[in-house]
Amino acid sequence: MSYRLIFGYTVLAMVGIAIMGIAIAAIKVATQDTPSPPAPVTGRASYVVREGDALSAIAQRTGLTVDRLTELNPSLDPLALVPGRRIRLRPAAPSARRAESQPPKKRFYVVKPGDGVLSIQEKTRVPVDRIRSLNPGIDSKPIVPGQRVKLR
Q1: So what's the pLDDT on residue 118?
Q2: Contact 92, 72 (CB under 8 A)
């Protein structure tokens, strides 16, 4: 490190400035905010979205990252959280995971009030792409209660 002597400053003053700079840098490093560990997740397996919730706030409240929440809830749209929607906070139980890989037992799903393609996917464990391929135009037309949606 080199310093240039400025007119009116003594060498001693420049050394003092250099030492102060080092001391200030050391203080900054010593007092830097270190991220605190995430709050432990209470034993809950899910979280119910409330009015005004944001995914980042839910992540902070539950001690998970936004990436982890979206990984656990692949059909979740972080920009359109619906109050009352249940969000998974931990992976499904092994028996539930096995059930997800098996084909659906029902051939059709009867739409209920408030259902959409994503909620049907969550209830039936049939991938959205499969629902869309079996039901052409399902995204362009409104889904109405009582409508039958093909699952296989």
Answers
A1: 84
A2: no
Provide the domain limits for residue 57: 37-91
Name every residue whose Cβ is closer than 8 Å to that of residue 89 and which is 6 or more positions away in sequence: 41, 44, 45, 46, 47, 62, 64, 69, 72
Would 32 be classed as within a structural domain? no
Report d(CA 61, CA 51) in Å as an integer.
15
Q: Any idea which of 35-44, 102-111, 132-141 has the lowest mean pLDDT?
A: 35-44
- Is 16 a domain residue? no
Say if 144 falls within a structural domain: yes
Give bridge partners of residue 150 from the DSSP assignment. 108
For the chain, the domain total comes to 2
Determine which of 66-70, 102-106, 116-120, 126-130 has the lowest per-residue pLDDT on average. 102-106
* Prediction pTM value: 0.38
